[in-house]
Design goal:
Layout (H helix, E strand, L loop, with lengths): L1 H30 L2 H31 L5 H11 L3 H44 L3 E2 L13 E2 L7
Antiparallel strand pairs: 1-2
Helix pairs in contact: 1-2, 1-4, 2-3
Amino acid sequence: MKDFIRLLDKTTSLTHELLYALGEERAALSEQDTTILETAIEKKLATAQALQSMEQQRDAALAKQGLTPGLAGLQAFLANHTDQKLHDSWQALCEASQRCKEENLLVGTMIRKNQLVTEQALQVLRRGSIETVQTYSANGTPPRQSLSSPLGKA
C-alpha cells in the first residue's frame, strides 16, 4: 500500500512540474521569448515522458494486485482500500491533473492565436489584404468569403 501511495505522490510531484513548465511556456508565449519557450517545451516533454513511465509503473502495480491497467483498475483498487492517505494522494493527483489540463488549454489557445496573427501577417505581405470570413453580409445573407480592402486602398 505504501509503495502505491509513493507512486501516486511521485506522479503528483511530476504533474506539478508539468504545470510549472506549462506556466513557463505560457509566459514565454506572452513575452514572445523563443529561448525561454524552447527551454519550457524541453522541460514539458521530459516531464511528460517521466509521467508516462510512472503510468507504466502504476499499471504494473495494479497488475500485481490482479487488476486491469488504467483508470478502471485504479478505481477498483481505490474502492477496495479505505486508507485515507491513499485517497488523499489520489485526490491530490486529480486536482493537479485538472490544473494541468486548464493550463494546457490556455497555452493551446495562445498558440492558435499566435498562428492566426502570423497567418494574417503573411496574407498582408503576400496579397496586400487579409482574407476574412463574415458571419453575415450587409443584407443578412451568409457570404462564402470576402476580402478586406487591399492595403493600398486603406
